[in-house]
Write a structure and sequence with these properties.
Number of helices: 1
CATH class of the largest domain: Mainly Beta
CATH topology of the largest domain: Immunoglobulin-like
Distance between the termini: 74 Å
Structural class: mainly beta
Length: about 280
């Protein structure tokens, strides 16, 4: 009987040790799972496709939006304060308990709602974008144009595009600006709260791909949020959206695009319904 009891105790201790060890490995010393607080980054179907002739190059321009459909905010902060345009620093992703504007303990006295940071990780780089005159979080999106099909040869690409992460509009419906948490790109915090979209206008520098050498035909513009899988999010498999279009006019030198279709959308907002062309 004593031998059986000793065996049971030994097995129980082994299970406890395994659980503790697993918790330390997964949570840096804490057996915690905060995935229910993660954002979920999804690309809004690109819109406003057009060809612009720039210095005898045929440039495809388009608007692009990254929506956060997860329960928690996509929140990023600079590891160090940026005082000089030549500086760069690590971009730290914060996992927050709520979508509120102020961190608990730092909010004004009249504000009761606040968030705590329960986890964080080094995710990207904060860098100054001279043509935009503000700070960008690197690797926010990636663009590709493929010929003939989504599996066709790449005609043009920009694999990792930096964005100033800010809440431009609500994905579904409108909200007043007072409800925004992330306002601008001049401080040390950027992001998009749950239900918000960060959008870039089609004329903004970075929203283009060079199709000068592309022959006339059918193409697919594929836009992917977090192409390097650098940020923690609840679903990494729904980050892309595409638009198909016909490119014509190479012989005449008057290139044009005509949209012919797009990827399926879980909601009207993810199809670009109601999206302004600003950002």
């Amino acid at each position: 009987m004593k031998g059986l009891v000793a065996l049971c105790v030994t097995m129980l201790l082994a299970v406890v040790v395994a659980i503790v060890a697993g918790g330390i490995a997964a949570g840096g010393g804490k057996a915690s799972d905060f995935s229910h607080l993660y954002p979920d980054l999804r690309t809004v179907v690109p819109t406003h496709l057009a060809i612009a002739n720039q210095q005898q190059r045929d440039i495809l321009r388009f608007s692009n939006g990254i929506a956060n459909t997860g329960p928690g905010p996509w929140a990023v902060r600079a590891e160090h304060e940026l005082l000089d345009e030549s500086q760069t620093t690590t971009a730290i992703q914060e996992i927050r308990t709520t979508n509120d504007r102020y961190e608990c303990g730092s909010q004004p006295k009249q504000v009761t709602a606040c968030y705590d940071v329960v986890a964080e990780q080094a995710a990207s780089v904060f860098e100054y974008h001279p043509s935009h005159h503000h700070w960008h979080t690197a690797g926010a999106a990636g663009f590709e144009v493929r010929q003939g099909s989504l599996e066709g040869p790449v005609a043009a690409s920009a694999e990792k595009v930096g964005f100033c992460l800010v809440e431009v509009y609500r994905l579904e419906g409108n909200s007043s600006t007072s409800q925004r948490t992330f306002w601008d790109c001049y401080g040390t915090h950027q992001g998009a709260g749950a239900g918000w979209v960060d959008q870039y206008h089609h004329a903004t520098d970075g929203q283009q791909l060079d199709l000068t050498e592309a022959v006339d035909g059918t193409y697919f513009l594929l836009s992917t949020a977090d192409p390097g899988d650098d940020f923690l999010e609840s679903d990494d498999g729904n980050n892309s959206a595409w638009v198909s279009f016909k490119l014509s006019g190479k012989q005449t030198g008057n290139r044009k695009v005509a949209v012919t279709g797009h990827s399926e959308c879980a909601t009207p907002g993810l199809c670009g319904v109601g999206a302004p062309n600003r950002g």
